[in-house]
Amino acid sequence: MYRKIFLFFVFWPAYLLPGGFEPMAWVLPEPVQRECYDLEGKRLPCPNLGDLLSNKDELRQKVDPAFRDNGDGTVLDFKTGFVWQKSDDGLMRAWDAAVSYCDKLELGGYTDWRLPGRYDLVSIADSGRFSPSIHPVFDCHPDNYWSNTIYPYYPGSAWYVNFKYGYAGWNYKSYGGYVRCVREDR
Predict the structure, then answer these.
(1) I want to staple 157 with a disulfide (CB 3.0 to 4.6 A). Which of 43, 87, 140, 151 is the partner?
(2) What is the pLDDT of residues 119-137, one digit of tens each?
(3) Which contacts (CB < 8 Å, 24+ apart) does range 156-162 have?
(4) Residue 121 and residue 168: Cα distance in Å, rounded?
(5) Global pTM?
(6) What is the structure's pLDDT at 134?
(7) Please, are residues 104 and 96 in contact by the beta-carbon 8 Å criterion?
(8) Alpha helices in the chain (DSSP H)
(9) What are 3-29's pLDDT values in tens digits?
(10) Residue 157: strand pairing partners
(11) pLDDT tens column, 58-111
(12) Which pLDDT score, from 0 to 100, does residue 41 have?
């Protein structure tokens, strides 16, 4: 005779908790592929999905590492075409100050820096690494980094990515977080 087993889970709504978080693998899809690049940063035609699935090991060897240190305090991400700030300045800021910091940043000869969106920031997180969970080309604190994405259930909060464990979460904008600015390579 079979027994029916019922599992009950209690879910406390994250929007009722300060500093709620959601595991990256559950809520955040892969970032949208915009362009493909070779190791020197030259644009290439992107392979189709069938090629990616059938030759994934060979392709991984060709594209690793996915980042290039530009030697001017910036890092090029070959997958997305974004140029990232290599190192933060070591200061934790409230969200408004983080937005302002990126708007005023002059680095690598550019002034068009911005605070990254949640999905942009997740694109450089590496859940295969721990403390920090990011590629070693970046200098990183194993802590929260602000994104420009507002938490929809409470506009007084915004999303961050935690680079100790590699998850995305939200917190009140008045709390402190590190900042890694981004720009699009044009």
Answers:
(1) 151
(2) 999 999 988 888 999 999 9
(3) 158/95, 159/118, 160/121, 161/24, 161/118, 161/121, 161/122, 161/125, 162/21, 162/133
(4) 9
(5) 0.67
(6) 92
(7) no
(8) 24-27, 49-54, 56-63, 95-104, 118-122
(9) 444 444 444 444 444 555 444 433 344
(10) 172
(11) 444 444 558 999 999 999 999 899 999 999 999 999 999 999 999 999 999 999
(12) 72
CA 148 to CA 140: how far, in whole Å?
19
Q: In a 3-state reduction of DSSP, which class is residue 110?
A: strand
Between CA 74 and CA 79 the distance in angstroms is 15
Phi, psi of 3 (to 5 degrees): -100, 140
Q: Which of 78, 83, 86, 167 is nearest to 122 (CA)?
A: 167
Tokens 């920031």 sit on residue: 121
Using a 10 angstrom Cβ sphere, with 0-12 exposed, 13-18 middle and 19 or more buried, the burial of residue 164 is middle
- Write out the two tokens for 51: 């090629």
Cα separation, 96 vs 88, whole angstroms: 16
The secondary element (H helix, E strand) that includes residue 26 is helix 24-27
User: Does residue 52 carry a pLDDT above 90?
Assistant: no
What SS3 class is residue 24? Answer: helix
